[in-house]
Amino acid sequence: MMKDVRLLTDRIISGYIPDGEELEFILNVPDEDVTYLTRKAVEARMAVYGKEVFIRGLIEISNYCKNDCLYCGIRRSNCNADRYRLTKEDILECCKEGYEAGFRTFVMQGGEDGHFNDDRLADIVSTVKEKYPDCAVTLSVGERSFESYKMLFDAGADRYLLRHETATDEHYAKLHPSILTLENRIRCLYDLKSIGYQTGCGFMVGSPYQTYENIVEDLRFIKEFKPEMVGIGPFIPHKDTPFKNFPSGSVTHTLRLLSIVRLIHPKVLLPATTALGTAKKGGRENGILAGANVIMPNLSPVSVRKKYMLYNDKLTTDEEAAENLNMLKKSMEEIGYFITANRGDFKK
Ligand code: SAM
Description:
This protein has helices spanning about 5-15, 20-30, 35-50, 90-100, 120-130, 145-155, 170-175, 180-195, 210-225, 250-265, 275-280, 285-290, 300-305, 325-335, and strands at about 50-55, 55-60, 105-110, 135-140, 160, 200-205, 230-235, 295, 340.
């Protein structure tokens, strides 16, 4: 086992994935000892994407979900969740506002809600693409069949976010009911990629029962799968879930993992997530400074934002909201970055 962050960083750059002990070491050394790792991650991002930060307008289309993931605030068993779903008109209105504000990617995310069957969702996707042909549409609506993914792609969807959550079967089984399997999640990811989507996987940092070895497996999966996007954010408990008493994941670990992922896969589109901004004030700026290059402000109608509560105290105000884009622009400029109004596709 190597106990030198500099040497480990250089080895990661040359393709090595640290083992569990090495990862534990990197994630827990004092901040001043990881400046080399951070610097190398920022250099890697600079070489591909420069100082541009891409913005995605997040539209939370439904908080109905047929699944019962133990960590998630919109799980089926949460009777306290105040359920809603947006209409096609609501979604088009969000896109209109977002387009005027400068967004060129719309991310439609939601629970696995049977209402959004292939016909309805394909119709919404194709209408958005007709109205805004210069925009990318990203979907994040969970596990579906190959045929369903294909139909949505043919309707115009460009990208799909589906975090793998954890790349270890035993850990997956501790986070999900037995009907949900890692095997199917991975099948979905490979289907998406083979169809031609820019595909995003990812995981929560500090989810219950997660070990350093589990994270090593996540990193190995990312290296092998080569996703166009990776979503990493800290786990944050939700008061109405079985995991309500588990602690939040570490912001420090999340930031260092963002740097490591950037080095493993330099071209990846890497968001500084809402969960990171929720866990720590300025968390998203720190994420950008650690190697991230995407931010996803919320375009959902204000009336439903508080209902899409995946975890306690999810940010719904301030820079998180798309209407405060100017604040976000300013906060990025203050750290030496700038927000652009282009689609921000993966660079091949
Ligand atoms: N249903 C879709 C899916 O399964 O991909 C998209 C919605 S799902 C709520 C989006 C992501 O939220 C999940 O992939 C999960 O990683 C994250 N999430 C859910 N509960 C969370 C929590 N308590 N803390 C942090 N992230 C959470």
